[in-house]
């Protein structure tokens, strides 16, 4: 018979706690409510996008998660520990929205300093690799006082990543980056996720969020206006067709599939939320039968940008 498992084995077998869990967060600055009843979770290995207009409360939420701003109400668990506990932050990497490093230090020295502050042990080769990852390999020995805006942001990313974090919080990581830098950061986030590292990404670049995030939380005036997976938020699919010889009968057949808008020979059909699996081939077969010439059929869905604007303009909460 095998020996009884040790307490350590039992703990190791427990499902890992969420990277972050928060509930009922509130913050007021004088009379202004910055954050009002915000709750969400970021699971291990999940990339969560935090979206919303300027002043929506995104940075304030992030600071409360990291114990940098004290909430008026609500609770936070960071990697399973209360956010007040400084140990909760040792495995968290953070790229702040606004920051300045000591201008007299070199890039390599800034990293060394942060490794020491995190109480981590990271071999020199790995630290160099981290600078290379953000494209600063050949600037390691240069003082950061002479760095361009984008180079400072790249260094900030290296600082957030160097101490082998389990959870990375990025507050607008690409606002100063060139297009290649942005693509690099996207790859970086995907590689973090594949290694089980959780990421909270706050960005105004919606395309970026759409490409890398598993789930999205949309804040508006301090409250959660919508939240869900991309599939949940962008549920409605549409079908774009390029057609010729569309008569009344064909128009009626298109309208039977969903709401139709047309622009010249381009027809867009908004499909129902839960369409029948054969809806597209059936439609195409019927159109051909009716004498329509079908030049192109393309499935698409509304973009996150359209959805976001829709949510913010109507201001209505719509959970699907
Ligand atoms: N230290 C502070 N003192 C007073 N008010 C503050 C402070 N920090 C934030 N606020 C207010 O809280 C609200 C939310 O600000 P926050 O920085 O969280 O917005 P944000 O969503 O990150 O916006 P942005 O997209 O512009 O970065 C704003 O009205 C802001 O003026
Ligand atoms: Mg902000």
TrEMBL record:
> Mind listing the GO molecular function terms for this protein?
ATP binding; ATP hydrolysis activity
Q: What are the alphabetically sorted keywords of the record?
A: ATP-binding, Nucleotide-binding, Transport
Q: Which InterPro entries match?
A: AAA+_ATPase, ABC_transporter-like_ATP-bd, ABC_transporter-like_CS, P-loop_NTPase
Q: Does the keyword Membrane apply?
A: no
PROSITE patterns with a match to the protein in the record: ABC_TRANSPORTER_1, ABC_TRANSPORTER_2
Q: Where is the ABC transporter domain?
A: 20-246
Task: Output the Pfam families linked to this UniProt entry.
Answer: ABC_tran (PF00005)
Q: Which family does it belong to?
A: Belongs to the ABC transporter superfamily.
Q: What is this protein called?
A: ABC-2 type transport system ATP-binding protein
- Give the organism the record lists: Asanoa ishikariensis
